[in-house]
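User: quick one
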Amino acid sequence: MSPFSSSSLGNQQRVAILGGGPGGYEAALVAAQLGAAVTVVETHGLGGSTVLTDVVPSKTLIATAEIMATVAGSTELGVRFPGGGTSDRQAAGSVTVDIGRVNQRVKALAFAQSQDILARLEKEGVRVLSGRGRLAGTEAIEVVEGEDAGERVAADVLLVSVGARPRTLPDAQPDGERILTWKQVYDLEELPEHLVVVGSGVTGAEFANAYDALGAHVTLVSSRDRVLPGEDADAAEVLEEVFRRRGMTVMSRSRAESVVRHGDSVTVTLADGRTVEGSHCLVAVGALPNTEDLGLAEAGVLTTDSGHLEVDKMSRTSARGVYAAGDCTGVFPLASVAAMQGRIAMWHALGEAVRPLALRSVSSTVFTSPEIATVGWTQAQIDSGEAQGDIVKLPLATNARAKMLGIHDGFVKLFCRSGSGTVIGGVVVAPRASELIHPVTLAVEKRLNVDDVAHAFTVYPSLSGSVAEAARQLHVMSD
Ligand SMILES: Cc1cc2nc3c(=O)[nH]c(=O)nc-3n(C[C@H](O)[C@H](O)[C@H](O)COP(=O)(O)OP(=O)(O)OC[C@H]3O[C@@H](n4cnc5c(N)ncnc54)[C@H](O)[C@@H]3O)c2cc1C
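Assistant: Done. Structure below.
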């Protein structure tokens, strides 16, 4: 609890934070806990894009999609729906989604979460200003637009955590109705009849999967050989196979050049001249940092060619007293990493003992059906010789619990150092892989070896039994 009183301000450190996403608000909580006088300047709402337009809304939409995917896969388990037949497609077709209601829920949940964060910050004594801010040198932030325009916040420590926004294509300008960014889909009142998703990275794959499960016909346009080019190749292959089996059209090596709306339809034109017609198009081709017009150069804060702020592992920028966190640094575009960078900045600035940011044990998930969760070194790094290690891959199809649940797709993959058996990474492709990856993350973080993992009890029958089994198999290999 920060004693935010004028009597203590004399020797109290002053912290000013630009941006109220996880990079900013988690930093504010740490700084307040350490007794600083903290001000956050935020343009849109506390929680940032994470809470209002990106993570929370997309995962809430995906929660409904997940139920629909479960329905579609339930006929094998003997479940029947009125009017539905005995195939997955018939089951899915007998249940519909009210997308207007889904989107209302999404927006209400995001708003409530943002309000909770605001209430928490206020309870901890953090001052919140509303408007667009910029640095005024290295010792103040000024609010230049919005409700609190004209305010100038002098501070000993500054943190820039302004996030990123969707990149668009010059010839595919979003109109918020038919040509959409990922922030605009929640205003849809009707489910798109045919959604063309341009971009097959994590965001494109998650939305393609979700709308397919919700009942839209989906075409996924990918400029690369396969979906999820940045992920484990075996995992991406499983997902692409599942997408095609469900009836999604996946177009690989197809670069979209333009998207044009004609009334109620859209035409996506590819670089080779082919066209794809749809009712809506979602453009998911990456993000750009919100670092323009922030007074960075004047304050001596260096940025990269891509516009990201240069930071070290303590979140320090090139300007003394100015720190940065989150997507605007381009370090690792995850809410969890943004929050950790923000906390590290404050621990460092306010004199706490602190460990530099370690990305070794960051776990992340692609929220598709099945989910793809990863942590640590990758197989690509082992195959290329960048990392040294042994690999075991166990298909879930042999797991007793998976059989009972009707799970046919997915696997557990574990990587360990040859000789020592130290666990260095893993991949889980399964329903709720986001939860199943945790024991692997613990092993990587605590440098456990495969025998440590293998000797811990797992429930029988359980999907996590496959993690222990993979560890057992690696023991045999490393002998
Ligand atoms: C569709 C989608 C789904 C995602 N899902 C996940 C997921 O499941 N898990 C995960 O870990 N990550 C996920 N991510 C990534 C995650 O959203 C980002 O890594 C995270 O938002 C970064 O947090 P941040 O604090 O850097 O920025 P943000 O959350 O974007 O917050 C930055 C804030 O700064 C404010 N701001 C900008 N400029 C100014 C200014 N000049 N003055 C005042 N305020 C300003 C903005 O209004 C914004 O509120 C997803 C991303 C997308 C696009």
